[in-house]
Amino acid sequence: MNLVESFASFFSFADVNVRYVTLGSVLLGMSSALVGVFAFLRKKSLVGDVVAHSVLLGVCLAFIISGTKHPLALTLGASITGWLSMYCVDLVKNYTPIKEDTAIGLVLSVFFGIGILLLTSIQHSGNAAQAGLDNFIFGKAAALVGSDVYFFALIAVGLMLSVAFFFKEFTLISFDTNFAKAIGFPVRRLELLLTTLTVLAVVTGIQAVGVVLMAAMLITPAATARFWTDNLKIMLFLAMGIGALASVSGAFVSFAQPNMPTGPWIVLIASFFALSSFLFAPRKGILAKMFIQIRNKRQFADENVLKSLYQLGENGKDFLCERTMREILGRRDFDTKALKSSLQRLCRQGYLKKTSEGWQFTTEGFEKGKRITKLHRLWELYLTEILRLAPDHVHDDAETMEHIITPELEKRLEERLKFPTVDPHNTEIPK
Amino acid sequence: MDAFWTILAASLTAVSCGLLGCYLVLRKMAMVGDAISHSILPGIFFAFWLSGGRNTLAMLIGAGLLGLLTTFLIEFFHKKAQIQSDAVIGITFTSLFALGVVLITAFAEQVDLDQDCVLYGEIAYVPLDLWLSESGLNLGPRVVWIMGSILVLIVLGIGIAYKELFLTTFDPPFAAALGFSVTLWHYVLMGAVSLTTVAAFESVGAILVVALMIVPPATAYLLTFDFRRMLFLSAFIGVMVSFSGYYLAKWLDGSIAGAMATMSGLFFVLAMLFSPIRGVLPIFKPKE
What we know:
Chain A has 431 residues and is an all-alpha fold. Chain A has helices spanning 3-11, 16-41, 47-66, 71-95, 100-124, 135-138, 146-165, 167-175, 177-182, 187-209, 211-226, 232-256, 262-280, 286-314, 325-331, 336-348, 363-385, 395-401, 407-416, and strands at residues 352-354, 359-361. Chain A is elongated and about 100 Å long. Chain A starts with a helix and ends in a 15-residue tail after the last helix.
């Protein structure tokens, strides 16, 4: 089967297995992304990891006590130990000087260790009914059946309804717990509810992707969504979308390549979305930030050139005279290459004119150079007059502030300093 | 004799992990250690694939590189993309682990390696995997030699660079002011963690490595205020965990790795309750 054929046959959903696996993964991806957003915002991303590692213990205990593998019994057992593990993390954190990260690692490894001990003990006991308990370790996304999907759907709908119903409360405890307490919200009970929802999402999700990768199903979509929006509602829908998309793609990969595991592919695809967002997202991505940095650096350099040109004209009051690069470099130590590109940019923007001898101010350029010089000297004066700094300590600070001060601030500064004419070094402040 | 070799191998692993773990716990980097133990999987795969078998040296190199890469990625995204550290740790190790599983599945014919062995190992096989010299002389289990060398390296490293590690752990700005490179020692430590993890993963698996790295040091932390004593205590607790874990596993007929993690948890609970200096029970609280 080539790629197009398998694509067509996958998305026709004619195969009942395909339907179950896809639907199951999507439901799981969406519900874990949903609670993951709150875990992420409360800086408790690794909580999912703790719960995932403690599920095995509950499953084994439930099996020992009930003697069956009824999904309800196993899920109940898993939820109890999952829940208990989170309680233990809080206990260790609150009653000993041990920090949260150590508490998390401690609880998850010990709970998982006990789980493994019990599981192997059950396996060695020769009880034939135990086969399949280890699905809780590695997941079995590719082998989901109808009853699993109904169960996932039930949990997913429950989670979504709870979040929709308690949206305002969850938002508040995620962003400002103290405020929530102050206005009388039952914060502890709400946190308990959120914890329970997380445990439910993990306990169901783990059967598809396994212990290690469960943490990714919770936080990767949330962290990805955070890079695209500042609005919580949009973030929730976005995270759910990313979780669903990664799940469908993962299910497709393991359909097209039957020996490929579904869970790891879901996580790999979600990680790919995350990585792309970290790098390329507008405004928050690494590249966007680098771009802003470069732009600011250029703006500073250009304004420094205009300032130097203005200062060159100050002695002879010949501001509109043309200047060579050597003269500019004599005034201020620029990197020659950076200066050249600054000059060209300023010509393009209409602040400078290129002449046969060198460069010359246009009226706009002159005004801008004058303003930067003025801001520099105003700020120096402000620092010495109002903040009482020594005159030889104010230059460096003014070098930065001259590029940042807005016209409104400029007006306030002038008023405060009573429209001064000279700066602390007795040079004239231009009008 | 089997019991002796197994407990010896477990103790060597536990002491190595415990010593390194003291630094991790105090640097608040326990979860970075956990992340490394999972994300070295692709490194192990590449080592298997390139060397065509369980070549210990290739695995150490592969895992060491992946460990450093994990540390670097966590730092990079935390600083450059300003993602909170808990999330960035989770995303990094799950991605690399998923990549490792996918690679191992894709090349399953060439690579004889399975997931559950990576996760929880099987230390009970240690006495079976013997190192025989050319002349057929039985030198004892291979794992004991590997873990023994790792332990010697760690003890030597801590002995030689005790001051540097101590200062960069407790007071990084002061260490930097004295001219020690905080970044360098950070990466040295993470490199050591990766090497130890991969050396131990065959026998005890990734999860137990985490348990041994975090739980004995955390227990020792509750018992003393002196760092040197904390190192010795966590080594001692590691040995006790190995002994008691082995016999617990025999009794329940279960995984030795799991039993060791269980025992370490038990020791921690005891310390948490009864520690003379930091215990929870009020009767053991020191008088004001």
